[in-house]
Design a protein that fits this description.
It is a single chain. The chain is an alpha/beta fold. The chain contains 13 helices and 13 strands. It has two domains: 146 residues, Response regulator (Rossmann fold, 3-Layer(aba) Sandwich), CATH 3.40.50.2300; 144 residues, Response regulator (Rossmann fold). The strands form two sheets. Strands 7-6-8-9-10-12-13 form a seven-stranded mixed beta sheet, sandwiched between helices. Helix 3 crosses helix 11 and helix 8 crosses helix 9. The termini are far apart. The N terminus is likely disordered.
């Protein structure tokens, strides 16, 4: 029995060494030897569980192209952020963040991280300039990509709206969301800074969208959506009333423009995602966030041509040449 037991242990040891050699060879071939030389190491990426993170899928794809593989050397862990101004919730979030190597955030998520006292987890982000206003003392933890500013966004939207003098903006939001309340404050500040007349309409449910859009038709040149302010379930109804009232509704999310909104300012994912994946990979290898530069990329236009035709919006050829087009 002892000899048999020893033989089994020997075979198990040989199997482990073979697996280690294969794993290390595979890692070297993909430039990831530093990350997975220990076959038990998995890079753990945290993302928000309770807030949409639309930039993550493309970033994940870019990581896979670098040689990462879900379940082998990459794990994505959703973390509920909740009200991070509450001391008890802060402790819960900090404890959860200790269980990941890097946290990935978009502009609508970043404000949830800023109140955390004692944050130690590196953060890779993509956000508009104003949303990336992290406290200076935490700069050593944050690195990512800034995708333009609110002023740039408004300039682009006005250009899309065939009238650079369009200065009456509508805004729709669900007031029960804490994030939407913060977004509203930001929108008001943005309107003042850019000499815009702002008409704000709160909706409790999708059933209120018709009334809100009819009111905005009387007061606004266009409606600009911010991702956290309305839910995905609102989009089809917004598209419906955009088309009926011929009131253009602009978005910052590719998926919502594809769903029928007329267009907007989006990040160029083909350029942004590889940068974010590269930052994550470098941090996984031991590079400190503070040793990496904050990247800047200009946003680009996205136009839904079918929606534009339906509402009689004429987009200039100059913009269409530069835009990502949805037919």
């Amino acid at each position: 029995m002892l000899d048999l037991f020893s033989a089994k242990n020997c075979l198990c040891g040989m199997f482990f060494l073979v697996q280690l050699a294969v794993t290390t060879l595979h890692a070297a071939e993909n430039g990831l030897a530093e990350v997975i030389i220990n076959p038990s190491h998995i890079l753990r990426i945290g993302i928000a569980k309770d807030i949409p993170t639309p930039a993550w899928p493309d970033t994940e794809k870019a990581l896979l192209q670098l040689g990462y593989e879900l379940g082998r050397n990459l794990m994505v862990i959703p973390i509920k952020l909740g009200d991070t101004k509450d001391p008890l919730q802060q402790q819960a979030v900090l404890a959860a963040l200790e269980g990941v190597d890097i946290f990935f955030a978009t502009g609508n998520v970043l404000p949830k991280l800023f109140p955390l006292k004692g944050l130690k987890t590196p953060v890779c982000f993509i956000a508009i300039k104003e949303s990336a206003a992290f406290p200076p003392e935490t700069r050593h933890l944050f690195v990512g990509l800034i995708r333009g500013s609110y002023t740039a966004m408004l300039t682009m939207v006005r250009s899309l709206n065939s009238n650079s003098e369009s200065n009456k903006m509508g805004f729709i939001y669900r007031p029960k969301s804490n994030i939407a309340q913060k977004t509203l404050k930001t929108v008001k500040q943005m309107a003042i800074a850019n000499n815009l007349t702002l008409d704000v309409r709160a909706i409790e449910s999708v059933d209120n969208i018709e009334q809100a859009m009819r009111q905005l038709k009387k007061s606004s040149d266009f409606v600009l959506l911010f991702p956290p302010a309305v839910s995905e379930s609102d989009i089809s109804e917004l598209v419906k009333w955009q088309n009926k009232l011929k009131l253009p509704v602009y978005s910052q999310l590719r998926s919502r423009i594809k769903a029928g909104l007329v267009g907007g300012m989006i990040v160029d994912r083909e350029k942004a995602s590889p940068i974010l994946a590269s930052y994550i990979d470098k941090m996984a290898r031991g590079t400190k966030p503070s040793d990496l530069p904050i990247a800047y990329r200009k946003p680009k236009y996205m136009v839904n041509l079918k929606a534009a035709e339906l509402i009689g919006l004429k987009v200039s050829t100059r913009i269409l040449r530069r835009a990502e087009i949805v037919n």
